[in-house]
Amino acid sequence: MGLAGSAFDVPSGATREAFGDGFAVPGFDAVARLAAHSLHVPLVSLVLSTGSAFWFSADAHRPDSPHALHPRYLEATRQGQTQVVPDTEADTRFGGAPLLTDIGPTRMRFFASEPVYTLSGQHVGALCVMDYSPRDGLNESECADLRDAARLAGTGLVLGSYVGRIDPVTQLPHRNAFFEDLRARQRGGEHQAWLIAVDVAPVSRFSAFIRAMGHAYADELMRDVAARVQVWMPEHTHLYQVGTSRFAAILPGSADGIDAAWMDELVHRLRQPFDCLGIPLCVQPGVGLLSLDIDQLEGGDPLRLVMSASHAAQESVRGWATYEPSDDERHRQEFFLVTELAAALNERAELDLHYQPRVDLASGRCIAVEALARWQHPTQGAIPPGRFIELAEQAGLMRSLTEWVLDHGVAQLGLWQRAGLDLKLSINVSSSDLGTELIDRLREAAGRHAVALEALELEVTEGTLLEHSDTTREILAAIRALGVGIAIDDFGTGYSNLTSLREMPATSLKIDQSFVRGMEASPHDGAIVRSMTELARELGFRVVVEGVETASIFASVQGMACDEVQGYHLARPMPAAELPDWLARHDVARFRRPAG
How far is 457 from 469, CA to CA, in rounded Å? Predict the structure, then answer.
């Protein structure tokens, strides 16, 4: 049976060679099978100079046993000479030591080995053959077969080394080679180096390249980017491909730092259009730098640190950045919060809903509440909604978060309605929520908590509508057909096409609060809000003005073409338990629009 790729260390404690445990030796199984057949032996081994070994067994006596050469025979394979031992029990050089340390029912009596060299002549081990019966030796033909097999094994080692270090697309050494070379510098006594990472494009954009143009185009792009970086790099500096769309290099260390103009030149080169397969393309590069104390290499991950800088650089005007521990800590904290949010959605009772009233100006009554998620982390305290919602969107958790809000919000609405409160519930949804499954989730939640679908409203931002106009229109039309209201949120920030806006199956429109809050200080903002309310009314939408935070803004809004108001002047978001008392205290007459 073949055991190619299984390495067993000898008892002497020798460490494995990179050849032996980094990857399988290509073709070893076939080479060993040929050697076993031509030399009529049951056991073949490729023993590396460090003691690691690959074994091939045609041994009917012990087919599944791991093997290891006795240290004395192992030492003989390291001499770089052909070894032929006709009878291991009669050869005084080995003092009667068994050939293998795992002594079975029958000892191996014959042993021969041939040195294995790389193409550059480096001695890396020996190809060994063994048999249970003593022999007179090897004849000339058998010696030639053993030499040929050893040469093939050497070629396999070189190929394995190449495969273990080289990216097949760019033909550049990859991440394993990057760290091997960095450790080699440490062993060579170097103390300081600059690491550079080049992110060709954000992950989402690079994926878009592949979706639009295919892998061949993306491969050609990576080769072209590599060529530009190599032209810029100092002589004798190696470029490594350390990720699908990321390169890295180890630059000479300098106490004076890196020349800023030199880095600007690299970014300038990378921002010029690439002509890939006849199609021009501009990328969004980010170049990160890290000053590395090589003496502190053990136990750290310098590539992760410099990647933090390159990621930050992609969003900067300059296009390159030096590693900042504070930025790295922020990234780590964000990752921690994402994992904690996932756990909170599934297991823990840290999430809660607060509800902000919406008041109808015609009657002064509170006719609806907007459900707003809140997160009280056990150690971090209150996490701002803007922060964890953005992280949820980036991490693909928005559907789970929306489902949680929908289920808990509708459940609370059912309790209020059964207690005699006549309210509707408004829930925010994101672009990632707008699939056909949202329709089923609405039906299921309303049915489970005995709430009429007409009592629900979904808020969708203007920007989301613009992102997915055709698909979104179909989904929203199906939701509207259920009786659920549709509100266009943050209106005024998305530069809507009015024809597209008119075709959306929306029932209400919420004026973005950034304009409303600025009304006191800016007459222009007041004019904008007035114009938007009139336009929305003309288009047939029920108009909601949010961000009403002062008495003067409320007074101004009362004279506009709006139907509802929402904001701190009326009420801040509050826990569900506080809403009934607020409703009881609510002064309807104070918030009713004057007649005439």
Answer: 19
